[in-house]
Amino acid sequence: MVEQNTFNEFLTELSSKAPVPGGGGAAGVGGALGAALGQMVMNLTIGKKKYADVEEEMEGLLVTMEQLKKRLIHLADKDGEVFAPLAAAYSLPTGTQEEKAYKEQVMEERLLAASQVPLDIMEAASQVLSILEVLAHKGSRMAVSDVGVGASFARAALLGAVMNVYINTKSMKNRERAEELNQRADAMVADGAKKADEIYETVLKKLRQG
After folding, report:
1. Residue 197 maps to a domain
2. Is residue 3 included in any domain, yes or no?
3. Which of 5, 21, 37, 92 could bridge 25 with an S-S bond, Cβ 3.0-4.6 Å?
4. CA distances from 17 to 20, 155, 192, 193 (A)
């Protein structure tokens, strides 16, 4: 999937009528692009005398961002992997009460798995945004626009992944669990979208000031 493909191959698969990759995979890739842009800013900051006082911090964040980038790509693939078992569960027979009960059990398990992956994407994208927030203030001024672009990608990953949470939790029979997942997602959206917008405004202000 994403980890083995070139970007053009991923786009070709994404644009086809194949069920995967889809929006969840695209959200993961978007988050990884945001992380990569953050790494670029850090690499342009490290080694510059002007930013010597934050070099150690940048080096530590660079390692963390690499881990987040790899995790987001992995999750982009994982999103496709959990879809196939869920799709298959919809076709399970329901001719008897035992079959209905079994299908309901399987559906709940697979809906939960399909909800957890986009939640994980959201969590990783939120962490990317937290690092980009630091870069907006401490990273190389020459690359501040890339911080803004990275934040836009991470925001898209966050708001894209949450739709994959909702589409799965709405079908869960266990409404208490579904609401718990929805509340986790809601909290990340509220915090992450606000943070992304603040980063974007900070970047715009710096660009307009010259």
Report:
1. yes
2. no
3. 21
4. 8, 26, 31, 31
